Amino acid sequence: MSAVHSVAVSSSAISKCPKNHHSLPGIAPLLTVARPISYSAFSGISLRIPPVKVIPRGGNSYNSQAIMMMVKPTIQFIQGTDEQTVPDVRLTKSRDGTNGVAIFSFDQPSVFDSSSELGDITGFYMIDEEGVLQSVDVSAKFVNGKPSRIEAKYVIRSPLEWDRFMRFMERYSQANGLQFVKK
Length: 183
Known about the structure:
By secondary structure, this protein is α+β, with helices and mostly antiparallel strands. The protein contains three helices and ten strands, in the order βαβββββαββββα. It is a peripheral membrane protein.
């Protein structure tokens, strides 16, 4: 998985550099490299993000800041298509806290409405600003020959994975009005 990193630099800092020397102290000059067009298996929707307006912090500051993009936490079964149905989530965790399982149950998920136009369910994807958590353990339940329910299982194998999953669930629950009920 690749990550996008951006650095904002004050335009006033660049304008104060000598005419033919456009680099800042301590920062290596950036090189532009032409690369051949390559095709990927990405089948989602391309986003056009407007350029970021840089606001100088005042003075002769050469400080640069990293820019973090916020992404609405979402769940997908077909990459690029958000699931609109909010799931019932059951969590289990081992006594020593080293592993666990999250079971997501979707009653009448919206993916059944759009799967005929968009393709087959390819997996279970939990997407937020940190990246993607995914599983291929997805099963559909049928009633009278029609799909009515999807269950997706996400296996957590370490304390780090558990912490990452809980950060996703906190963001997802805040965005979708879920609350934790301990049984």
